[in-house]
Design a protein that fits this description.
The termini are far apart. This protein has three domains: about 70 residues, Endolytic murein transglycosylase (Dna Ligase, domain 1, 2-Layer Sandwich), CATH 3.30.1490; about 80 residues, Dna Ligase, domain 1, CATH 3.30.1490; about 130 residues, no CATH class. The chain is elongated. Strands 1-2 form a two-stranded antiparallel sheet. It contains twelve helices and six strands. α8 packs across α9, α8 packs across α11 and α9 crosses α11. The chain is mainly alpha-helical.
């Protein structure tokens, strides 16, 4: 047998072997229909292509590390994988898997509604796989003072996660999520607060905690009163009470304390709750609550910045119409309580 025929035979068998291997792994390149389990996969920044392949294999997202790595090298995508968090089906094909990892984590549009609390936002974003549960509630606000000096007085992010529509990536870095919230707050809320503080020079806004006090007051208005004009009247009432040292007596603050930072699924207040010892019980303790009780929307913040003067000292909400009923005296207020609440 001459050398040419020998090479033909060797080439023939190599072709057969290669074709057999391709057949063996061919199904990995097909999108298989039907339901499949999902895996929560996190690719960290700096991970090598080999480390990613090992992780995919450990999560049963690929059958063969070799086939995945060869495909990545042949297509030139091996160095294009993006870090982040992915929710992947176990029956995903290698081409689709590789494309997903090179495209990067999926984007998601999230609506933060006015009045949502820090805990409620944390749970919502974790349910959507944007962050992990507790990333926002446990966030170290002190680490942000160098970037956002107006947060110096804040004890948590409560009140500063401005309600709006946001675009997040699945599996986002909590620092980036918080930065997106705070940059939006700084852009849309800080200018009007600063402007009015300088214009009015009111004692309530004199020191470095004026922003926190404004948001704290706005959070009470957000949870207590739906109508913007009525919020302005209530803002005037609450500021008068603060000025004379009268307890604010805001039910929403008590609910926040009783239900540990949440309003969803919180039972109605009972008579004994008004004796509940909490820094959020504004019946027992004077001044504003310990922290804001929610993340107020722009309208409530405007109301806090534009309190309307009136002769009123009391208010309550009509359970049927949701309209606010204002009173000038305690006697009048008690009569309204008997009329609307009992």
């Amino acid at each position: 047998m001459n050398i040419n025929k020998l090479w033909l035979v060797v080439g023939y068998w190599l072709l057969i072997i290669g074709f057999s291997l391709l057949l063996l792994h061919f199904f990995q390149f097909l999108d298989i229909g039907g339901s499949a389990a999902t895996r929560d996969l996190e690719i960290k920044a700096g991970m090598s292509f080999d480390e990613v392949a090992n992780k995919l294999k450990a999560e049963n997202l690929i059958q063969s590390k070799t086939v995945f790595k060869i495909y990545g090298l042949i297509t030139g995508q091996a160095r294009q994988l993006k870090p982040g968090r992915y929710i992947l089906a176990t029956n995903i094909s290698i081409p689709k898997l590789t494309k997903t990892l090179t495209d990067g984590p999926a984007k998601i549009s999230v609506i933060i509604a006015p009045g949502m609390t820090l805990k409620e936002i944390d749970e919502s974003l974790s349910d959507l796989a944007v962050i992990r549960l507790g990333d926002l509630t446990n966030f170290d606000v002190g680490s942000l003072e160098h970037r956002y000096s107006w947060l110096r007085e804040a004890q948590s992010l409560e009140g500063f996660l401005l309600p709006d529509t946001y675009i997040f990536f699945l599996g986002s870095d909590p620092d980036l999520v918080v930065k997106k919230f705070l940059d939006n707050f700084e852009l849309k809320v800080l200018p009007p607060i600063t402007q009015l503080v300088e214009l009015w020079g009111l004692p309530f806004f004199e020191n470095s905690s004026n922003i926190l006090k404004t948001i704290n007051l706005a959070s009470l208005l957000e949870k207590e009163i739906p109508d913007t004009k009525e919020q302005q009247i209530a803002a005037g009432i609450l500021m008068k009470r603060l000025a004379v040292g009268m307890p604010l007596q805001v039910d929403a603050a008590l609910v926040y304390g009783k239900c540990l930072g949440k309003f969803l699924n919180c039972p109605a207040l009972r008579e004994e709750d008004y004796r509940f010892d909490s820094p959020y019980n504004t019946y027992l303790y004077g001044g504003l609550p310990k922290t804001p009780i929610c993340n107020p929307g722009p309208e409530a913040i405007k109301a806090a910045l534009n309190p309307q003067k009136s002769d009123y000292w009391y208010y309550l909400s009509d359970p049927k119409t949701k309209k606010t009923v204002f009173s000038k005296t305690l006697d009048e207020h008690n009569k309204n309580r008997a009329k609307y609440l009992y």
